[in-house]
Amino acid sequence: MSSQSQPFARTDRTTLSLWWWTTDRFLLAAIALLICVGVALSFGASPAAAVRTHMSDPFHYAVRQAMFGLGGAALLLGMSILSPRGVRRASFIVYVIAIAIMVALPLMAHSIKGAHRWLQIGGFSLQPSEFMKPALIVLAAWMFAEAQKGEGVPGVSIAFGLYGLAVALLLLQPDFGQTVLITLAFGVTFFMAGVPLRWIMAMSGVAAMGFITISLSFAHVHDRIQRFLSTDKGETHQIGIATAAISTGGLFGRGPGEGRLKLKVPDVHTDFAYAGAAEEYGLVLSLALIGLFAFIVIRGLQRAMRLTDPFEQVAAAGLFVLVGQQVCINVAVNLNIIPTKGMTLPFISYGGSSMLAMGLTLGLALALTRRRPGAYTQADRVARAGAALP
Fold first, then answer.
1. Bridge pairing between strands 115-121 and 110-112
2. Where are the alpha helices (DSSP H) in 53-83?
3. Residue 372: per-residue pLDDT
């Protein structure tokens, strides 16, 4: 490709030019496509949601989703320019601020359905736990890497302390879905850091006992599990309605705006966005969405595993795993495979906190996987150099 067709010349040493030539542009394109798809789908779900919430503008939620998309894209691009040191610093700042807000939530939070998870700022509801998740993964990877150096830093203890504090605050809200998600992501990060297998088994046992304890202690969690296990969910159960909508969508769907799910399920533009899209656009779009998410996660993990620095490798892989886990949980709920978790589908579900937090998550991941001198293995550098030869 000629230099005239490129936005930056290879000889240009400015920050933007270096970012352009060192960032995975295939991942950037896939993420941009997801954001655009999410905004497009919101125009179909917005009118029904506007009527239900008594909004005069039928496209109120679609316009806001477009604004959130722009904000998420800006945050992603801003984070992806950072150096690995900048990623650590940004994650530390985000974690401290998010934890501070979560501590204050019982006193200043906006309560929805009895849960104190959101901070109301004007017309925007901020969910700090969404931003805490990627910051925790980066900090945990940093501490695990420091512990491996053998210089006396109690990295493992600090990492578990950060995780324990986050879980305690999540359970106080209460938010069982986010607790499960960060526990899985933290466990994967712990495993990728190369810890002994017996530690992994011990952590798995503790997590299993914790799950059982929480299921018995929290009434709403126990109720969700009981409804999920029930063979008679009834026609009014939103999971049953969502799975029926996916089935009626067929191969190519009912058509844009023709779905019936959004008229029956109030959360179709948030938790059940996947089911709404499947009903209107069919199996083709459903598989395309899953394929796009799979491409981002798999390509991201491939790049992360070739990194030479232990921190960068584990942190980047943990962030991509975090995204993949959230996608799997949301889709599994929509398909009635697991109980409802209140988990959004990244970039597709409506919500400012979710959109901005995903921009932060993948922005940090892109920053860690950029091509820097010595960042990748020798074999990878030789292969890339050979591919660049005429």
1. antiparallel
2. 60-80
3. 86
Task: Give the Cβ contact number of residue 263 at 10 Å.
Answer: 12
C-alpha to C-alpha distances, 329 to 132, 274, 361, nearest whole angstrom: 18, 12, 17
- Condensed to tens digits (0 to 9), the pLDDT of residues 114-142 reads 566 777 776 677 889 999 999 999 999 99
CB atoms within 10 A of CB 279: 28
Q: How confident is the model at residue 110 (pLDDT cuts 50, 70, 90)?
A: low
Structural domain boundaries in the chain: 14-372
How far is the C-alpha of 307 from the C-alpha of 75, rounded, in Å?
24
* Beta bridge pairs of residue 121: 124
- The span from the CA of 93 to the CA of 107, in Å, is 22
User: Cβ-count burial of 370 within 10 angstroms (0-12 exposed, 13-18 middle, 19+ buried)?
Assistant: buried
Query: 336, 383, 311: which is closest to 85 by C-alpha?
Result: 311
Alpha-carbon distance of 48 to 59, in angstroms, equals 9
Rounded to 10°, the helix 273-305/310-334 angle is 160
Phi and psi at 119, nearest 5°, equal -110, 120
More confident residue, 210 or 386: 210
CA 142 to chain centre: 20
Residue 70 sits at the vertex; the CA angle it makes with 64 and 76, to the nearest 5 degrees, is 135
Rounded to a whole number of angstroms, the CA Rg of the chain reads: 22
Cis peptide before 174 (omega within 30 of 0): yes
What are the tens digits of pLDDT across the range 343-355? 889 999 988 899 9
Q: How far apart are CA 270 and CA 349, in angstroms?
A: 4
| Alpha-carbon span 234 to 70, nearest angstrom | 40
Look up residue 232 and give its two tokens. Answer: 């008679």
Whether 137 contacts 319, CB under 8 Å: yes
What pTM value is reported for the model? 0.86
Check if the beta carbon of residue 315 is closer than 8 Å to that of residue 308. no
In order, the DSSP letters of 319-384 are HHHHHHHHHHHHHHHHTTSS----PPPTTTSS-HHHHHHHHHHHHHHHHHTS--TTTB-HHHHHHH
